[in-house]
Amino acid sequence: MRKVARKINYYCTHASAVVLLVLLLMTVADVFLRFVFNSPIRGSFELTQMLIPLMVYLACAHAHDCGDHVVVDIIYENVPFIAKWILSFIGHLLYLGLMIILSWRLFSLSISVRDTGAFTSQLEIPIWPVLMFGGIAILGYVVSLLFELGAIIFKREVLGNDFG
Hints:
The protein is mostly helical. It contains five helices and no strands.
C-alpha cells in the first residue's frame, strides 16, 4: 500500500511539473505579447492565481516522501536517538493534523464556492474544481504522513533514517 501511495505521489509531482511548465510558457507569452503587441493574455493573472497553489499541493507529498522538507539539521543531528524519535513523532503528528485540517477546509470551501456559483472575473472559470483538486492532492500528503507516522511508532524509525 505504501508503494502505491508513493507511486501516486510521484505522478502527482509530474502533474505539478506540467503545471509549472504551463505557468512558465504562459508568463513568457504574456510578457512577450504585452511588450511587442501591447496585448497581454486575457486572464493570465487569474490562471496564475489558480495554478500556483495547485502546483504546490501536488508536489507536497512527493517532497515529503523524498525528505525534501526543511529540517534544522544542526540541532537534530546532535541529540540522542530518543530525542530524535520524539521530535519526529511530534513533528509528523503536527504535520498530519495540519494537513487534515487543510484538506478538510479545501473540501468544505470548494463545496460552499460551488453552491454560490463563484467564477473568476475575466475568464469565468469555476473556482470550486481547483479547490476540490487541491484537497485531493493534500490527501496524498496525509496518506504519506500516516505511513511515516506508522514507521516512527511501530519500527522506531526517526526522520533522516531510511524509510524504505
